[in-house]
Design a protein that fits this description.
Layout (H helix, E strand, L loop, with lengths): L1 H34 L19 H22 L5 H25 L7 H20 L6 E6 L9 H4 L3 H7 L4 E7 L1 H5 L8 E10 L18 E10 L8 H6 L10 E7 L3 E8 L1
Antiparallel strand pairs: 1-2, 2-3, 3-4, 4-5, 5-6
Helix pairs in contact: 2-3, 2-4, 3-4
Length: 274
């Protein structure tokens, strides 16, 4: 029993080291792609709720959700208690995002955002519920990106490279909630690998709150809601380490036909949307 305790402590220590290493790598990339070009000032708050049609809030929720789920699943490899694993995941999801808000608070280009922190906490909690119930009300969150024409207009905001565009160009991003139809509706003959996906995006966002002070002040910004399908192809493995390493692959939605609704164009059909 004592030997088992020592083994568990070693695994927990390795878990902490793994999460810390992942965090430092991501934090380093975020610093150079997002904050390095802005001088530091005194800590301050900024209300950015009305910016980018709340796409950035969904991004915060998405990130906290997956950090929570990922940390919980790693801990489940050590102990099988779902509630403890979910609690650890929620804590990790919140802690992972908090230093980013601190950086925002000291950056002249932004400020600490209360709405961002609310999104972080909500996303972490949704990740914990996913671990406990394996199919939360809001589905499994996924992401897709297609380059937008707007990203070329303001590279100082939307990025100069493709990797920066994926992170910063809200016009090209779509966030999805993917639902396991067979499990939720208990449909006997529904293919288990086909899921329903509901997406959210925004278009024509040249400025943060509006387009008035840009080169295209008359272009209307609008929200987009999508209905599509997704494939449950995530390759589960008997190898615990491989199973964890493969997890990020499942964050990206498979390109599929989609129906879009927005208030300016009504219903639109896309043969492929990504």
């Amino acid at each position: 029993m004592f030997q088992h305790f020592k083994s568990s402590k070693s695994k927990i220590f390795l878990l902490i080291i793994l999460l810390l290493a992942c965090y430092l790598i991501l934090f380093w990339g975020l610093w150079f792609s997002w904050y390095s070009n802005f001088p530091l000032v005194g800590f301050h708050f900024f209300n950015d709720w009305k910016e980018w049609l709340q796409m950035d809030k969904v991004g915060h929720l998405f990130t906290a959700f997956h950090v929570s789920v990922f940390a919980s699943r790693i801990y489940l490899k050590i102990h099988s208690d779902l509630k403890i694993s979910a609690t650890i995941g929620i804590i990790c999801g919140i802690l992972f995002q908090t230093p980013i808000e601190i950086l925002d608070g000291f950056s002249v280009g932004w400020g600490a955002s209360i709405s961002d922190m609310v999104a972080n906490v909500l996303g972490a909690i949704l990740g914990g519920t996913f671990i406990i119930y394996n199919q939360p009300i809001f589905g499994f969150l996924k992401f897709s990106y297609s380059p937008s024409w707007i990203s070329k207009l303001r590279p100082e905001i939307f990025g100069n490279t493709f990797s920066e565009n994926v992170l910063k160009d809200y016009n090209g991003q779509t966030y999805w909630s993917v639902f396991d139809v067979k499990k939720m509706l208990r449909l006997k003959y529904w293919p288990p690998f086909i899921n329903l996906a509901v997406g959210y995006g925004g278009q024509n966002m040249i400025g943060g709150e509006n387009n008035l002070n840009t080169a295209f002040p008359n272009i209307e910004r609008y929200r987009q809601v999508y209905i599509s399908l997704d494939l449950n192809w995530y390759p589960k493995s008997k190898n615990k380490c491989l199973d964890i390493l493969m997890y990020p692959i499942n964050l990206v939605k498979i390109p599929f036909p989609a129906v879009e609704f927005n208030i300016y164009q009504g219903l639109r059909f896309h043969w492929i949307h990504f």
